[in-house]
Amino acid sequence: MKLEFLGAAHEVTGSCTLLEAAGKKILIDCGMEQGADIYENCALPILPSDVDAVLLTHAHIDHSGKLPLLSAQGFRGNIYATEATGRLCSIMLRDSAHIQEQEALWRNKKAQRSGEAGYQPLYTVEDAVQTMELFVQCKYHEVYPIADGISVRFLDAGHLLGSSSIEITVKEGEKQEILLFSGDLGNRNRPLIRDPELPKRADSVIIESTYGNRLHGPRKDYIGQLAEILQETFDRGGNVVIPSFAVGRTQEFLYLLREIKEKGLLTGHDGFPVFVDSPLAAEATKIYFDDLTDYYDEEMLALLRQGINILEFDGLEISQTTAESMAINEDKRPKVILSASGMCEAGRIRHHLKYNLWRADSTILFVGYQAEGTMGRILQDGATTVRLFGEPVQVRARIATMDGISGHADQKIMLEWLENLEKPPKMVYVNHGQDTVCDEFAAVISAKLSYPACAPYNGGIYDVESGECLREGNRQRLVKKSLVKTRRSASYERLVRAGERLNALIEESKGISNKELAKLADGLERLMADWMEY
Ligand SMILES: [Zn+2]
Ligand SMILES: [Zn+2]
């Protein structure tokens, strides 16, 4: 019985783990890497057609995003997930496929001009649609036998509608092992969904560690915090731009914004407009308020019982088309704009940043985790200028963060979750956290709970019964740190000298015609746009 870590090891995104047990090969999550690639994910060490089943913890793309690729490459087994996860995947995987297709189209246009070979999308909308046929709906708490000797049970992880921790029971002859995958664990007291459920039994635990080194502090008054930011920004005449995951976070914020309006918490801005600018968010919102009542917390159920639909508050406008999206920036009223992607890596949010970052009266409000290397993190870290669509944009807007609203459990909640186990597990494997955070959290688990814990690297293989490491993973970092080393290389020195000559050329150009100056500036802007993402 072996566990092999293939992704989100010493990294936050790209979750994928292979369990080989009872003669079967089971994948737990099959996610896509997002943001900067710090460590290379391992290629699947077996053929996709040899994977017997996939267990999916939740719909987020960093856990589900490579499923259409797996099925396009020959996987024909079942994908076990909760009903809500399946419903959300049906829109999110299609959306992800659409992005892949657009990207391929764009690259191919570029390739045509330069005569390079064509570029294939990672997968197509068709692949995503076919993947959905492999989904098998599971309810929380029921036991599902998925193969001879293997059964699974889903627990509510409180992170996203339908999100789960998955308990896997394996019987090999007389031996029985229970493995528990935490999935992404939610924070407590979030809008709409329930708190993460505490597990009871596990011989081995695989736990996330996004906030493994942080405490969220006492419960925050989300509505009060948000109302204050809106009041202050609207009084200045600015907009509040909220980069937000289209699925989950956007719906939570619609809930909070409806409450603010309902309770009349703003002075002088009655009926302020709220724009949801993301076709995916619009679709997801429909699913949220369809008939998934099994998944809500008490407050939300009470609203539903009163017949209140948070989709229908005064001032809410949902834009589907590009024209509708562009019209938002023509609207001069102070407003809230919720748009994706949540880490500002792609999507319509980048247009809203372009229109609002330079405005000192606007606020950019971060409401979710911003991974290292993403535009969101760069802004949070205090960048004074960023590049959007090849142009430099000054950052004059207020950059604010609502921390407590995080979708992830903090260190305290995760330790309590682990501590609830009836007996100490043989090993806790820590993944889904930033490089040093994985190690830190593993050390905290050992110190505070006296459970054996480790933080595997991609490619690491472990014997489930003993917890022994059979093969070390790959510790080679891909990004940034290696850049620092190459800075001293001959090529880098050459680049520095070329830069100096460019500066000299600019100095000497003072006398030439405006037309020529504009031509040079255009050429340089184009060159920089090709080389700089931000
Ligand atoms: Zn997640
Ligand atoms: Zn995740």
Give an overview in words.
The chain has 534 residues and is an alpha/beta fold. It has helices at 61-64, 67-72, 83-114, 125-132, 222-236, 249-262, 279-288, 298-305, 322-328, 349-356, 375-380, 411-419, 435-449, 481-486, 490-508, 514-531, and strands at 2-7, 16-21, 24-30, 53-55, 78-82, 135-138, 143-147, 150-156, 164-172, 175-181, 204-207, 240-243, 274-277, 316-319, 336-339, 363-366, 385-388, 391-394, 398-401, 427-430, 453-454, 461-463, 469-471. One zinc ion is lined by residues 15, 60, 62-63, 184, 432.
Features:
534 residues; alpha/beta; Metallo-beta-lactamase, Chain A; Rossmann fold; 23 strands; 35% helix; globular; binds zinc ion
Gross morphology is: globular
Report the β-strand fraction as a percent range. 15-25%
How many domains in all?
3
Radius of gyration: 25 Å
Shape-level CATH architecture of the largest domain: 4-Layer Sandwich
Report helical residue fraction.
Answer: 25-40%
Can you tell me the CATH superfamily of the largest domain?
Answer: Ribonuclease Z/Hydroxyacylglutathione hydrolase-like
Reported for the largest beta sheet, the result is:
8 strands, mixed
Examine the coordinates and then state which fold CATH places here, giving the name of the CATH topology of the largest domain.
Answer: Metallo-beta-lactamase, Chain A
Low-confidence stretches: 481-487
What value does the average pLDDT take?
Answer: 91
Q: Label the structural class.
A: alpha/beta
